[in-house]
Automatic annotation (TrEMBL):
<feature type="domain" description="PH">
    <location>
        <begin position="73"/>
        <end position="175"/>
    </location>
</feature>
<dbReference type="InterPro" id="IPR011993">
    <property type="entry name" value="PH-like_dom_sf"/>
</dbReference>
<protein>
    <recommendedName>
        <fullName>PH domain-containing protein</fullName>
    </recommendedName>
</protein>
<feature type="region of interest" description="Disordered">
    <location>
        <begin position="194"/>
        <end position="223"/>
    </location>
</feature>
<dbReference type="InterPro" id="IPR001849">
    <property type="entry name" value="PH_domain"/>
</dbReference>
């Protein structure tokens, strides 16, 4: 199963297994497994039966399961929409491309399903909002607006139900992606903090070594001075001017 996953998915699966995955021998955690006392499915990696998860992974699975089970199949299959341009609207197929992490759309003949024209993309990470069309506009009950900063893309679904499904699905995709990026930022911040702590520790060790070296030199100079004074006193020698 793992061989079919992209490299990033393989890494995520390995991290999950090393973090907390164990067969669900008992629904009640023991003292030894208290840190993995949660059970849930992990649809993202094909675990359709509950498995034991640590607290952090359980929260992630709860957030992701609905997306991977309900919303992602809808987005990857795609659907026909009417896309508004500058002068006219045209039929396009809109779908999500998971391995490239963007939505793409292309003009299509709704009867023959023949594609024409260039493929255009909307990166998921660039989407700042997704919402229904303002009620004052035409066909507001089926219109979707995908905002990328100041730029907006309007797509009209074939039914109000499909409009609601797509708004919910894209919102869910943004939520899951946002949580993933936040986790990566937190992980990176912890790594940077660890690296900085190591640098601070090395700097402190170097400073202590320098302080010991300086102390040793000062102690050696002091002992030599004391030895000279002892020799002068022993032989009644005058101090050098």
């Amino acid at each position: 199963m793992a061989s079919a996953f992209p490299q990033k998915a393989k890494a995520g699966l390995c991290a999950l297994i090393s973090c907390c995955f164990q067969p669900s021998h008992s629904p009640e955690p023991t003292d030894e497994s208290i840190c993995s006392g949660n059970f849930d499915r992990v649809v993202k990696f094909g675990f359709v039966e509950p498995v034991r998860l640590c607290h952090n992974c359980a929260a992630t699975a709860k957030n992701e399961n609905g997306f991977y089970e309900k919303h992602l199949p809808l987005l990857e299959t795609g659907d026909l929409f009417s896309k508004y341009g500058l002068l006219r609207k045209r039929h396009v197929l809109l779908k999500f491309v998971r391995d490239k992490n963007f939505f793409q759309y292309q003009k299509v003949d709704p009867e023959s399903r023949a594609f024409e024209g260039e493929i255009k993309a909307i990166p998921l990470d660039n989407i700042t909002d997704v919402r229904g069309v303002d009620a004052s506009q035409d066909n507001a009950d089926v219109g979707i607006v995908i905002a990328v900063g100041d730029q907006t893309h309007r797509f009209d679904a074939t039914t109000a139900l499909k409009r609601e499904q797509w708004v919910e699905a894209i919102t869910s995709a943004r939520s899951v992606r946002g949580a993933l990026l936040a986790a990566e930022r937190e992980k990176r911040a912890k790594q940077v903090e660890k690296e900085n702590e190591e640098i601070r520790r090395m700097s402190e060790n170097l400073q202590k070594m320098e302080e010991r070296r300086t102390s040793f030199q000062e102690d050696r100079i002091r002992r030599r001075a004391e030895k000279r004074e002892q020799l002068r006193a022993k032989y009644n020698l005058a101090a050098a001017s």
